[in-house]
Structure prediction request, 570 residues.
Amino acid sequence: MTLAKDYQSVMGRSNEIQKAALGLDYADFETSPIAFDYDALMKATNYTLEEIERIQGLHGVGNTPLLELRNITALARKYAKPGFGARIFVKDEACNASGSFKDRRAACAVAHAKKLGYKGVMAATSGNYGAAVASQAAMQGLKCIIVQECYDSKGVGQPEIVEKARKCEALGAEVVQLTVGPELFYSFLSILEDTGYFNASLYSPFGIAGVETLGYEIAMQCREKLGKDPDMVVCTTAGGGMVTGTARGLIKAGCKADIVAASIDLTGLSMASDVDFNKKSCTTGHTGFGVPYATDPDHSDVPRSAARPLRYMDRYVTTTQGEVMYMTEMLANLEGIERGPAGNTALAAAFSLAQELPEDAILVVSETEYTGAGKHIQPQLAFAKENGIDVRFGNPDEDKPGTNVILPSSPELIKCKEADINRFKKSLVKKAVKKSGVKPTEADLVFLAEEIKENVDYVKAALEAEGLL
Amino acid sequence: MAKKGDWVRIHSVVLKAEERTAKLPDDTKKCDLEQWTKGYLQDETAKVGDVVTVKTAVGRLEKGTLIEETPYYTHSYGVFVPEIIEIDRQLREIMKFGGEE
Prediction:
């Protein structure tokens, strides 16, 4: 019998399609309408850190260099109080096979798909993850389809996303491109159902477990090179996988560094807006993904996301597009490392955060990403100008996403802003309870406290304030 | 005119604007959800604008309107952006690369 392939029918079969495409029944982990067993989900991968290191090592992933940014550190110290200005290091994740840390997520997901006997893998992503899955699929001998949101209704593609499509095709994948809108998920599910491929979701436990090696390597490399642990690790955050996996790896290494999440502030630009789509000058690592995924992790392409950043982050800071563009040029010009802009969100934050820490402190930026045509500050800024965005020097405080890109008129003006993490924590608790439609039990309160790295009293107070307890 | 086996790009409308029921901003609601992919042309011959079937890189058969024969990428490093060399000049000056003038 041929299945109906219209929107309602396919979306109605979402759960069964996903179950078949992940080899994992998420219902096994649900413990109440609110809570689920996160540890059990992560353990369901059955991969130890050593096993993941082995898989990644076989496929050109991991063990990337930890580079000290001496000139950028020296520049930051010019603007810090005497005795302040931490040593800034960066994990050069662009050295992974396809050019970003996403290879860590893809290596495990693809290896798992192969072990389970799937013929191909699929991923819905406009980011570096597409190239990562395509690269790993090529290495491990599987077919690959990448579905990306790429164009506005005039057919104008975001240069950074167009480049990612090119790279996926170069690595042998089929790329399906769509205009703006969340119904991309319908196309994705429909093809997933037709092909019977594995859903190499960014948010599966296999993917997140793959990032743990990054945190673990950071701790080990700091110990080997510097004889001490990092004091602070800054991670660019969008879907939350980088923060979650890196923090878990650091914890596995027994490292107590502060975890700071950083996003570009794109407040005011709607992620599902056709008009706003090409007004963004960076397509990832921004608050448009960072905040909704932190406060409601379970709206991705899997029933329960393994990326749960509020369980791990100590602070959430924001930067501006102009600051990130400026830092990208700084990295090239002062350190001789030309890398893509999106991965430098955390670096822009780090330049400012380093000034809060003493000179002997160690600050690690968790990633760089590859650069290329479209995925570089020159085409990004040229594209911004073509779209009527005012690109100029000034004070980043004047930044208005979608209207201007303010390049700092002096490096002294690069200052990340503290986002209200308590508001995000309260928002997560509120959303989780509202979504469930039930009154939380004692066990639910403990779960929610773990979800936001707080105690039960904090959760109770947050719910009482909303009349939800 | 493309012939069977040529590499082409096709376009289709997945959902017409009025069929879109997801929670969307007003501007997006007015737009069709469109889709593109590429593959080997399965029809004997076809010209731009014809509805055709292609066999994609993974071997899927997909139907759509032929919009491009021998498709290629044109994204680039963009036009000159004077602000970028100004950043370089400023940073080099602050850091005094090469020593004092």
Remarks:
- Chain A touches chain B through 64 residues (CB under 8 Å).
